[in-house]
Design brief:
By secondary structure, the protein is an all-alpha fold. The chain has 36 helices and no strands. It starts with a helix and ends with a helix.
């Protein structure tokens, strides 16, 4: 029974399938007939969209790819005569016009293509590349952000790196890599960015260290795959050397062999040559490093190779050879603004500020809007104390590229230095404050967690007497950058000003323990500790500070006050003996030394010391009388004070 039922079901299914197959055949046949009819009608009534038009677009595209721009212009123009609203034809005509140097007309065609088809990412990419080439980075990024291609992410990352926006650049490199871009230069650029960000020590440092490892592994795999097919590939051999140099597990011999192999494959690789020289310097082989760099500066040397040698000479303080080399570089590449900016920067590093500033002025006559030259000029003017000139140059650079984070940060730093140095004496101080606050808002808009921006905002709030706002801003900064010593130090200063001595001590102690504290941090800690009645803490930190800065008189005086409070005069005397003579002879130190001698039972020595200070006019009669009272010589103290009063009265009468 079950067998018959199953057989019947199978037959019904087979019948249904046969019917369905037959129905499908009829539907497909009908669709084919309709398609043929439509093609016939289209060919009859729309001849402009026929085979010739498709061929025109294809030929125009091939002509653009092969850089035959005259032919591409004619072909794309002919197609537009038949179909003026074709996005693809407008794009190809724009690309051809750009190739022929007709920028304005090319731009119009590209924009027309995007108006007709906003999803045409090729036009966005092309416009981004053009704007980037002209250093119009803000406009370039607008178009590149609208293009999803990995190539757009790479171009955006390069621009953002130039602008100093490393976090954003890193994110774009990561997106490009995740979309399949595995070119070795891209991986190396991403690797360097992640290393820089990991070294900054902020909240994302661990993330960037992990990304660095991932990218390094990807780069190594790509290099090894390339070397399997092309054992002497110049790019791959150079990359392998760089990766081995970064790997702590590599032996020096292995790294050096890789660098030698890379330079044999491509002697003109300036970056590889500079990295090899750096490796040699780290291993104490300075002469070999110099030879390697000099070999790269020959008849066919690149600007990068020459500037690498210039950097070496500047570090070695060989200024005569440096100037000679830089003059040669400028004469060989007189129209390269990057070379001219690097030359001026190197002259500044060598301490030849007048020559450096003159080099910038001459270069700016040729390239008035070159951002790098304006930035270097601003740096040199700021170092020379010409704050207005520096501000003007940074302003011109930001006029050419408003979102350049590096230049913006420098301009804010300059304004803050000018503002804080004014000490409220500027007649236009309120206006100066407004301009500085405006720049800070721009800086924070570009990078919300920028350390310098948050510090400056807090410092500005402190200057304006808004200590609560300053503390809140610093707390926000410390959530992201908990090891930021400058923020801790500023918090300590504000708390000390508000007489919260215990809180101030905690902040300064963190800075001292971190090893990044300066003498002011030590001094402010001991002042707060004395005010809080913690002399033992003063002794511990002041002695530590004096080991670093033995000539710091203020630290020594605070240490003396703490020892005297603890009645440990002998300890202070031992500490004073260790200090330089110039410190021991300070009047404040001598007074404290005398009181320490009193505690140590050396009253005669203390009296001789104090009388010497009194005769030299470095001690008041009242202070000397206090000493006499302290050693139970009250009668002498009273007689001394009467005598001093009589002398003072006689002096006034004679006047």
């Amino acid at each position: 029974m079950r067998t018959r039922v199953r057989t019947s079901v199978r037959r019904r299914r087979r019948g249904f399938r046969s019917l369905l197959r037959g129905f499908r055949r009829r539907i497909l046949l009908a669709l084919l007939i309709l398609l043929l009819v439509f093609v016939g009608i289209w060919s009859a009534f729309l001849p402009s969209a026929g085979g010739r038009s498709v061929e025109l677009l294809w030929q125009a595209s091939r002509a653009v790819e092969s850089q035959q721009f005259d032919e591409a212009k004619d072909l794309a123009g002919e197609y537009l005569g038949m179909d003026p609203e074709s996005p693809r034809a407008n794009f190809l005509l724009g690309a051809a016009l750009f190739g022929l140097g007709e920028k304005s007309a090319g731009m119009d065609r590209m924009k027309a293509a995007l108006e007709l088809d906003p999803s045409m990412t090729g036009a966005q990419l092309h416009l981004g590349e053009i704007f980037a080439r002209e250093n119009r980075y803000a406009e370039a990024l607008v178009h590149l952000d609208a293009a999803p291609e990995a190539q757009a992410r790479v171009m955006a990352a390069e621009i953002l790196t130039t602008l100093g926006r490393l976090e954003d650049a890193s994110a774009n490199y990561s997106r490009a890599i995740s979309r399949g871009r595995r070119e070795i230069p891209l991986l190396l650029a991403a690797l360097e960015l992640h290393r820089l960000l990991a070294d900054r020590g902020h909240r994302g440092a661990a993330v960037h260290r992990e990304k660095w490892e991932q990218v390094r592994n990807l780069a190594r795999d790509e290099v090894l795959l390339t070397l399997d097919d092309l054992p002497e590939d110049p790019e791959a051999t150079a990359t392998l050397a760089l990766l081995l140099d970064q790997d702590a597990r590599s032996s020096p011999e292995e790294v050096e062999r890789a660098f030698i192999r890379a330079l044999q494959a491509d002697p003109g690789n300036a970056k590889c040559r500079a990295s090899y020289a750096d490796f040699l310097i780290r291993n104490g082989r300075v002469a070999s490093a110099r030879r390697i760099l000099e070999e790269g500066v020959g008849e066919h040397g690149t600007p990068a190779a020459c500037l690498a040698l210039a950097g070496f000479l500047a570090e070695s303080c060989e200024f005569g050879a440096l100037i000679e080399l830089l003059d040669e570089v400028a004469s060989r590449w007189p129209d390269d603004p990057g070379v001219l900016a690097s030359r001026a920067e190197a002259l500044g590093r060598a301490g030849m500020s007048n020559l450096a500033r003159e080099a910038v002025r001459a270069a700016l006559l040729k390239f008035p809007d070159e951002i790098r030259l304006l930035e270097v000029g601003g740096d040199l003017a700021g170092a020379a104390g010409e704050l207005d000139r520096a501000d003007q140059l940074y302003g011109r650079a930001l006029g050419a590229e408003p979102r350049n984070l590096r230049v913006l940060r420098k301009r804010v730093a300059l304004r803050m230095e000018d503002l804080l140095g004014a000490g409220g004496s500027r007649s236009e101080l309120p206006e100066h404050l407004k301009r500085t606050e405006s720049l800070l808002r721009e800086l924070v808009d570009l990078n919300r967690w920028d350390r310098a921006g948050l510090l400056w905002r807090a410092d500005l709030a402190r200057v304006r007497g808004r200590s609560e706002l300053a503390l809140n801003l610093l707390a926000e900064l410390l959530k992201v950058h908990p090891d930021e010593g400058a923020a801790r130090s500023m918090r300590g200063r504000i708390l000390k000003e508000r007489h919260d001595d215990e809180g101030a001590m905690e902040e300064f102690l963190v800075v001292v323990k971190s090893g990044s504290a300066g003498p002011d941090d030590y001094l402010l800690f001991v002042e707060a500790a004395l005010a809080a009645g913690r002399p033992a803490a003063v002794v511990r930190i002041a002695e530590r500070g004096l080991r670093k800065w033995p000539e710091n008189v203020e630290l020594l005086k605070h240490l003396g006050e703490a020892h005297l409070q603890l009645e440990r005069g002998r300890d202070f005397l031992r500490q004073v003996e260790k200090q330089p003579e110039s410190v021991r002879e300070d009047p404040g130190v001598e007074r404290l030394t005398a009181w320490a001698e009193v505690q140590a039972g050396r009253e005669k020595q203390a009296e001789r010391r104090l009388r010497r200070l009194l005769d030299a006019g470095r001690l008041t009669p009242g202070e000397f009388a206090r000493f006499l009272y302290a050693v139970d010589r009250g009668d002498e103290a009273e007689a001394f004070l009467r005598e001093a009063a009589d002398r003072n009265s006689g002096s006034n009468n004679s006047d």
